[in-house]
Amino acid sequence: xxxxxARRSARRRDAELELLVHGVGGTTPGQMxxxxxxxxxxxxxxxxxxxRAEDAGAGKDPRHxxxxxxxxxxxxxxxxxxxxxxxxxxxxxxxNLAHWMRPAAAGRHRTARLYxxxxxxxxxxxxxLLVAAACEVALDLVAWQCAGxxxxxxxxxxxxxxxxxxxTAPGGHATWWSPPGRRLALAxxxxxxxxxxxxxxxxxxxSAYESHRPFSHDPGPDPGGSALTRPGFxxxxxxxxxxxxxxxxxxxxxxxxxxxxxxxGFDHRHGGPAALDVLGRLLTSALAAWAAVAVGVVCRRxxxxxxxxxxxxxxxxxxxxxxxxALLVLTVVxxxxxxxxxxxxxxxxxxxxxxxxxxxQGLLVxxxxxxxxxLHRRSPDPRACMRGQGxxxxxxxxxxxxxxxSGGVAQRVAGxxxxxxAALPGPPVLLTWQASTVxxxxxxxxxxxxxxxxxxxRLARAERDRIRHEHPGEPEDPGRTxxxxxxxxxxxxxxxxxxxxxxxxxxxxxxxxxxxxGALATGKTPDAxxxxxxxxxxxxxxTSQALGSWLVGxxxxxxxxxxxxxxxxxxxxxxxxxxxxxxxxxxxxAHPFAPPCYAERAVPDLTWRMATWTRRTGGRLVLSGxxxxxxxxxAAAWQLPPSVRGRIALLTxxxxxxxxxxxxFPAHFGPPxxxxxxxxxxxxxxxxxxxDPIGGPVRVPADGTPEVDHGPLRDPxxxxxxxxxxxxxxxxxxxxxxxxxxFARERARLLSRLRPELPGPRPQxxxxx
Length: 769
Hints:
Blueprint: H1 3-14, E1 16-21, H2 29-33, E2 38-43, E3 48-52, E4 67-72, H3 90-99, H4 109-145, H5 150-155, H6 165-168, H7 180-187, H8 189-208, H9 237-269, H10 274-299, H11 314-335, H12 350-378, H13 390-418, H14 429-435, H15 438-470, H16 478-491, H17 497-524, H18 526-532, H19 535-568, H20 570-583, H21 599-617, E5 620-626, H22 628-639, H23 642-645, E6 648-653, H24 657-664, H25 666-669, H26 671-680, E7 683-689, E8 709-713, H27 741-754
Parallel strand pairs: 1-4, 1-5, 5-6, 6-7, 7-8
Antiparallel strand pairs: 2-3, 3-4
InterPro entries: AB_hydrolase_fold
Organism: Streptomyces incarnatus
Keywords: Membrane, Transmembrane, Transmembrane helix
């Protein structure tokens, strides 16, 4: 090879780039590139692009194949163990996920907006539920009940400054905090601090995610594909700020109502000073009016995706929570006014609040199911989960999870305060009944797990016969056959997720209705209800309530423990992080207090890198994504200008684009969206295995072009010992796709399709002068 050919070869290699994007669990640049010596090309400590050290200079690649770059984004979703506290906001993340599960809305834009409105209202109810549960614990159980009951006041010394003097010791003196209104005012600091913490976390994560501007481009004419092509899809700054203000105001108003309601009720019933009675009525009206304003803000039109919306409703974002805070301060002053003869007896009026909140959530879920059904019938997708009812089912599960956590925590705190004396009235009856639904739900899940286990075992036995026929002439190894058959059977469990969600949703709906009916029956006349209830049934109900409260407490501890482990242990993160990374992939379109969306940083990073590299070099680029990285790769390809999108090749492996995202998010990853992506990019290849529990085919029709799906790949690469594999080849499943020779062949095929190789040298012929 002469010098000219060597220079052309070096330029050609430097103009061929493979941009690798890892999946769930994260990895290191050295592991992705197969070389411990790597350098950072661009980026920061949170997310960056790396190359091998020998590839850092232009034209210095002595190997065959394209230059490889690795985009490492794992620090966007992992970090120190304190980030496991995000898991406590799981109901918020789940309800935000439901926003994106909307069925495709071909020509039904108003119905689609109604769907988003109902999800946002359900999300607002979860914020109110969380803060109401904090008020129940701090205001009702501690400040109102325990400080007002002699046995509880003597049992615990730490609230002694709140209790009347006769409860603590003979001859005791009353403190300034002894009146019930002042106790409630002081206890209101707990839910207020929780609200401020949620507001701070949402605002801080905005600066880390939503503040990153996406790549500005002209999306061109809408071919009816995915909304992920729109310029403003990954820039939700304005909506998150507006929803954050509304949810913060609603949370503060919930605290204000919890403080004002007992004081206003006393002034109205017992003929207190007329000035206080009038002030209470005015304050109640102001709280209701400001709550209506907050609800109106939530009901305003949602996301603006067709353009990059850089406006910010500064007056609204500032005044709405500040006005709610001012009303809360006025309420605290009003409740703290001295009222002779006011004693804390019974429980606060939480039964009415929780009793109204739960049916309201149920009505929202029913309305959402009707809207989702209308959308699905307009554009039916046979692969969509639960016939388009995935979003309503997930909203119901989010509300149920919030209710069970609220009931379980309230039950545990009440048991800790009261011990075995049964002197406190305890939490509202509805929360007690909600905690009692935990054991039946777990029993149903165990039965379902047993059924799925039996089905998997039957499938594994059937796979053994297929494996024997796949390797004719090779000596059979029963243990090897069982391992391969078990891996294939276990991989199919992912496709049974809709059944699990459907059964869990139906169980939750039935048990929720039973809990509401039980609360209504026992809340009005508990003595008469207890006389009408048989002793055996009453014993079962009490046992279920006690067991449910303990299980919720245990689940809370396990939840935090698993979350901490997931952020420390890579293997645990691969197990737990699948659903977590799916949930935090989507922008915060329904709930501003949900964990932040990492894709609002990762997608612009990938888009900027691809657009600037192709513009500078004009070379061939293969965007190579594994697992969740394939979803990021597809989202980044959609954000490229059409001219650049048509010059890149997409290589996906272990890809959940159709198997998970296409089925659960049909409006954005359904068949029309994936078909449009296939048309827009220059070429696309997808690799998958039958033993992979996450990846699968993308099922895009060929339409006269080469097939996208190439597989399933052999796994393991060899059944027995061969000269190429003298040791037993492992069952790879979801990992190490690059170890398969098919990977290099598919990448070379995409590069050749992206642009044909340069023609060989022609015979030398002197041109005429």
